[in-house]
Design a protein that fits this description.
Length: 321
């Protein structure tokens, strides 16, 4: 007789959300460590890929080589966290297909990052390849935030808490946040921290691209403040307003760091803090936008008297919209 196959124990929605939080934190952490590689000038510490040097997988005991090799090793930790997110979606009870697809999106993104990271090294830190590497990380963070937000709920959030015009404004706010990140990568690709002394730089005027980045940031801040005001006016739950306040506070803090680093000659430590701030602001913007939706009402069990069931209240903001 064949021994019975052991199944993985089922996961509660709350337990699965903790797993997705681990994946989100891991993806955010590797963005920061990747910035550390660039800011320490270790981008070509390992000049080959997937090995560190030709015929040598482990980095030699040299500063730049070890910094780059440790960052590559962290990619393995991220991969484990992402795989756990996929496995968790398969044993979560109740199981939801959308969570499995979102977790598989993380797998696809991490695989793409590994390949693109190798291309960055083989192209000797060409600015466009580095920009693409960072922007893919931003997309991966979006995927991870959505998965984490959905993980503990019985159904996706589909019913808006605010009028349609505010939802559209919220999407514009997220688009503005992404535009700020894109402009920031152009500033970085033009500035002095290329990851290696031999790395090419974009042939742009640093003052002009910095001004473009600042304009995009001010527009983003204006949209975030408007969204927060509309959220208060619509009477949304306290948690939603708190997320909006956190976003505005994070943008203001990021602005202070950005202006300080510019006027002090972009020291590496402040640039690193600015990268951390970019990750925090991006996640905060996504969480604020996602909080504008609530879960659809679950189906009523068989035998419920619909005449005795109270109708859903209509939010005053929805009427005004």
């Amino acid at each position: 007789m064949h021994a019975p196959r052991r199944r993985l124990p089922p996961l509660s929605p709350q337990a699965y959300q903790r797993i997705t939080l681990l994946a989100l934190l891991a993806l955010a952490f590797i963005v920061v460590t990747g910035a550390a590689v660039r800011l320490t000038g270790s981008g070509l510490g390992c000049s080959d890929w997937p090995t560190c040097e030709q015929g040598q997988f482990v980095a030699p005991l040299e500063y730049h080589a070890m910094v780059e090799f440790v960052n590559r090793t962290i990619t393995g930790v991220v991969s484990v966290a992402v795989i756990l997110a996929v496995l968790g979606s398969l044993v979560r009870e109740p199981r939801r297909r959308d969570l499995t697809w979102w977790s598989l999106g993380l797998v696809a993104g991490v695989l793409a990052q590994i390949v693109l990271g190798g291309i960055v090294v083989l192209l000797h830190l060409a600015p466009v390849s580095v920009i693409g590497h960072f922007l893919l990380s931003i997309v991966l963070l979006w995927n991870a935030v959505v998965l984490h937000e959905r993980a503990s709920h019985p159904a996706p959030a589909t019913r808006p808490l605010v009028p349609t015009s505010t939802i559209v404004l919220g999407r514009a706010m997220v688009a503005a946040a992404f535009a700020v990140v894109v402009a920031g990568t152009i500033v970085t690709a033009t500035g002095p921290h290329g990851g290696d002394e031999r790395a090419a730089r974009l042939a742009l005027e640093i003052s002009e691209v910095t001004r473009l980045h600042a304009i995009a940031a001010w527009l983003f801040l204006g949209l975030a403040i408007t969204m927060l005001w509309r959220a208060y006016r619509a009477g949304v739950p306290t948690g939603v307003r708190r997320r909006g306040a956190v976003l505005v506070g994070a943008i203001l803090t990021q602005g202070v760091i950005g202006y300080t680093q510019y006027f002090t000659g972009v020291p590496p430590l402040l640039v690193g803090l600015h990268v951390v701030g970019a990750v925090v602001v991006w996640i905060a913007a996504l969480r604020f936008h996602l909080a504008l939706f609530t879960r659809a009402e679950p189906a009523l069990p068989t035998g419920v008297d619909l005449r005795a069931d109270r109708p859903l209240p209509v939010h005053p903001a929805a009427v005004r919209g």
